[in-house]
């Protein structure tokens, strides 16, 4: 047997040991169409990120503080996309991907206060090139485990060399305190591989309540200080 035959045999052996998800991931990530699609999402993500940066810059001048503490963005990996499509029972095609998966481009916006979350979201959604597709308000209606965050799916107009495309982006908005909780909970979910012991889940649920109380208390302290500042300005 020659070297090429040996290599082919080796490749076949390796491919046979791949799981369905790994094969799907391999198939998706190696096509030109997939790479092109990912570029669209990346550009849409950049556009939305810029919009948040512009708002933050302008508002920080106006209010002398930053309503956005931090912005993070990511493109979902081919592996996570393949896993999600499998979980939803979707065929692994690019058209199925574009029509059903809306969180390929994701942006997380962290704000100091709950009012900042809604105010910044309102400002984003009032822009004419942004279309709201879906809202999941886990701040008003937290998940059973205590997860709080405002999730928006928006479509943004992006201009490419061959014309304009509307590309969906998932925006997650939450306070610093909510983000602290979500980060710890996420790492515990990872540690326990989705099988979290009940006593840990209970403590997390109580911690989520405490975080919610903290968010409201901090807002109330801030409002009191602002009221005091405003009335002293009026007097002088
Ligand atoms: P990653 O790597 O964070 O992107 P749908 O997309 O509507 O079919 P899905 O995916 O359940 O259904 O949507 P949902 O409820 O809007 O939540 C999606 C994302 O929100 C998750 O992304 C997390 O980032 C975050 N999230 C939702 N629930 C929780 C939670 O209980 N704890 C934490 N820490 N984060 C949560 P992915 O898909 O997990 O992956």
Task: Walk me through the structure.
By secondary structure, the protein is α+β, with helices and mostly antiparallel strands. It has 8 helices and 5 strands, in the order H-H-H-E-H-H-E-H-E-E-E-H-H. It has helices at 3-16, 20-29, 32-63, 78-87, 94-100, 114-125, 176-191, 198-235; strands at 70-75, 105-111, 130-137, 150-160, 163-175. Strands 1-2-5-4-3 form a 5-stranded mixed sheet. Strand 4 and strand 5 (163-175) form a beta hairpin. Helix 2 (20-29) crosses helix 4 (78-87) and helix 7 (176-191) runs antiparallel to helix 8. The longest helix has 38 residues, at 198-235. It is flat. The structure holds ligand 0O2. Ligand 0O2 binds at residues 76, 80, 103, 106, 136, 143, 145, 147, 151, 182, 185-186.
Which key features would you list for this structure?
single chain, 236 residues, five-stranded mixed β-sheet, flat, binds ligand 0O2
């Amino acid at each position: 047997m020659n070297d090429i035959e040996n290599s082919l045999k080796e490749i076949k052996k390796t491919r046979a040991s791949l799981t369905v998800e790994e094969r799907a991931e391999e198939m998706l990530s190696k096509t030109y169409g997939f790479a092109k699609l990912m570029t669209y999402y990346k550009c849409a993500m950049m556009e939305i990120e810029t919009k948040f940066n512009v708002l933050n810059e302008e508002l920080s001048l106006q209010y002398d503080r930053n309503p956005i503490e931090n912005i993070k963005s990511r493109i979902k990996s081919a592996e996570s996309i393949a896993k999600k499509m499998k979980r939803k029972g979707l065929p692994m095609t690019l058209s199925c991907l574009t029509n059903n998966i809306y969180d390929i481009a994701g942006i997380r916006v962290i704000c100091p206060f709950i009012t900042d979350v809604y105010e910044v979201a309102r400002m984003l959604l009032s822009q004419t090139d942004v279309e709201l597709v879906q809202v999941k308000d886990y701040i008003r209606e937290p998940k059973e485990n205590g997860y709080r965050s405002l999730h928006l799916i928006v479509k943004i107009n992006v201009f490419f060399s061959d014309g304009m495309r509307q590309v969906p982006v998932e925006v997650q908005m939450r306070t610093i305190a909510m983000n602290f909780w979500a980060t710890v909970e996420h790492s515990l979910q990872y540690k326990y591989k989705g099988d979290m012991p009940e006593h840990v889940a209970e403590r997390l649920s109580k911690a989520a309540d405490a975080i919610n109380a903290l968010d409201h208390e901090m807002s109330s302290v801030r409002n009191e200080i602002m009221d005091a500042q405003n009335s002293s300005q009026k007097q002088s």
